[in-house]
Amino acid sequence: MTEDQLRLAFRGITNSKNYLFDFACASWSLICEPGDMIAGLLRAELGPIEALVHVINDLDAESIVKELSNDQSPNLTKTLSECLETWRRRVKQADVFRSLEILRSIGGTLVTSKSSYWPEQLDDLQHGAPAALWLLGDPKRLLELSESVAVVGSRIVSEYGKVVTKDVVNTLVKDGKPIVSGGAIGIDALAHQRTIELKGLTAAVMAGGIDRLYPAQNLDLFKQLAKTGLIISEVAPGVSPTKWRFLQRNRLIAALSQATVVIEAGFRSGTINTAGHANELGRPVGAVPGPINSVRSAGCHQLIKDGRAQLISVSSDLKELCGESDYFEKDFTSLGHWELRALDSLGDQERSIAEISRVSGLTSFEAETGLNRLAKLGLATPTSNGWMKR
User: Is residue 274 helix, strand or coil?
Assistant: First the structure.
């Protein structure tokens, strides 16, 4: 494989000049599954090229582990040995040049971490970050996703869900937020379509190759997305979507976005998986409540109940979720530490003095003293059984 061959293979599908690096990243997209932490570890420690060379040259796991930093798991050698067996079986079948040719034929682009278009927020996934992104649309617009919000929810959507999705997207797009979702039927498709209607930017993250867009019912939507937005995948063209890849796709939706909003999700919805990834990344999550007896909103209610999501009921909640509420612009320098700790422990739902004391680490007397001063300043309000943020 010569430099000229690589240059020819990547002509028109990357803005990077690091052809060998990009080739190695594209190869890793084919030989390991999305979210493979061991593959990510090797790429991070050795670089994608050297890590790939070790796979191709049949270097044993023990020798590879010796090249890594010393603070690795004692079981790494055994785990890596099992991974190498799978990767080597796949690397013999991988036709990277074929995947690149398919990408060119559909007008796509390959983006790796060497590209100026790489969305750096994905690096928060650490060893779980994708080796590369294969996409349709203008790659420069990937950089706009740093301010994006994920809007996700059930595939089976009620009339209430349709109205709420439209309202949420209207508010976010009006505030200049790109919308990220998964391209599925239901809430995802509604979020994408409404953003397109408002002439905003929206990105769909796929579980399979971008030449195998799924579901077929959304083909017209995908055509619009390819023209005006982005279609993104971490797996190469030709790769089929699977249940595992759908679950791993959700981590990219969460990682690309500064916040995630969940609309109509049942207990077992894949959307809850997306919220979980956002929680793990420390990104804010909001959930829209539905009727108390609606199974379609049971997952949303549980997220709120567990404190894993902020309740979203009005447009100002969305601003606060994204860190843009006027609340964060208020001057708290005059507050003492009792007031500040009590304020930090408050939420949009009622909390008892006992709970506020537990969360803030204050005694009941200290918490009540702080809360009474916050009430005078208009920052907190007493309720029948406790306190809440005003």
Answer: helix
